[in-house]
Specification:
The protein has 283 residues and is of the alpha/beta class. It contains eight helices and 15 strands. Strand 7, helix 4 and strand 8 form a beta-alpha-beta unit. The structure holds adenosine-5'-triphosphate and zinc ion.
Length: 283
């Protein structure tokens, strides 16, 4: 039995639950209890506050956990970083009132910076040989300059709209973050086996998100040219259409390459192009 800790509620909860569900796991949500047993996999889910996840994993109370790199790095506890998960993307940034005239990092010398990330901020200040006071607060960091508590803040940013609505501007990025899967150091071989099976599924889900299945029709005379344009996994499938002289071509492409090649495909004579999402992809 493997035990995974995920956030009980908040920004990482929904995507963590979705990822596990897309891995085919059946389990109850956090509203019912603290621990949910997965019905069809050797796994138990522990719902926690995100700040507690690194400690639970470090101590082995949970074998693995899903947490933001920001929280993991701030706690400075040892655990193995298994893989990035591609959601919960944000950055830990410094921001100052928008009217402040900042010419270089030396502006921060002698200033007071409010943050919920004292370790990461202190480390960054030290690395940049800056001498600022770190004021640790647990929430509502974005209002700290407005109420006169600090000269600058160091907080999580994703779109930046919260900063703007509080009259702040971002001046430096301290850490780029996304959700990661961490594990207890020295996991038993039995648990490692279960984790491997879970990671196999996670990889299949993640690859599927990045790729699309594409189907198109083409006159046989343009078949070779079209096949050259398609950057498939292997060579594409080519099937004859009922109408003679025409073929249907199927392949898998990376979604972000799609718009690059669509024009070329049409110029080469492709018609009836369908792009279909892939649910799972195993290579
Ligand atoms: P908890 O109640 O579990 O302690 P929380 O309020 O500390 O939750 P959330 O706001 O739910 O935390 O954020 C959880 C994580 O989501 C963050 O640590 C970060 O990794 C990620 N995240 C992504 N975008 C943002 C954002 N714009 N602001 C804050 N966190 C973000
Ligand atoms: Zn938290």
């Amino acid at each position: 039995m493997l035990r995974i800790a995920i956030q009980k509620s908040g920004r990482l909860n929904e995507d963590s639950v979705l990822l596990l569900k897309e891995c085919g796991l059946k389990f109850a949500g956090a509203d019912r209890k603290l621990i949910a047993k997965v019905e069809n996999f050797d796994l138990e889910i522990l719902y926690l506050r995100d700040d507690d996840i690194p400690r639970y994993v470090h101590e082995g109370v949970a074998d693995v956990g899903i947490v933001g790199q920001n929280v993991f790095a701030e706690t400075q506890l040892s655990a193995v970083e298994e893989q990035k998960l591609g959601f919960g993307k944000c950055r830990l940034s410094l921001a100052v009132p928008k009217e402040a005239e900042i010419e270089g990092l030396s502006w921060y010398n002698g200033k007071k910076i409010a943050t919920s990330y004292p370790n990461l901020l202190s480390g960054w200040l030290q690395k940049n040989s800056l001498n600022a006071t770190v004021e640790e607060i647990s929430g509502s960091v974005e209002i700290a300059t407005g109420i006169g508590l600090a000269d600058a803040i160091c907080d999580l940013v994703s779109s930046g709209s919260t900063l703007i609505s509080n009259g702040l501007k971002e001046t430096a990025v301290i850490l780029k973050s996304e959700a990661i899967l961490i594990s207890t150091p020295g996991l038993s071989s039995e648990k490692r086996e279960i984790l491997k099976r879970l990671q196999f599924r996670i990889d299949a889900v993640q690859k599927a998100d990045k790729y699309k299945y594409i189907l198109l029709n083409a006159p046989n005379s343009s078949k070779d040219e079209i096949i050259k344009i398609l950057p498939g996994m292997k060579s594409p499938t080519v099937l004859p259409l009922a109408e003679s002289g025409w073929s249907s071509i199927h392949t898998v492409i990376e979604e972000n390459k799609f718009w690059e090649i669509i024009e070329k495909l049409r110029q080469a004579g492709a018609q009836g192009i369908l792009v279909v999402p892939i649910e799972k992809m195993i290579m």
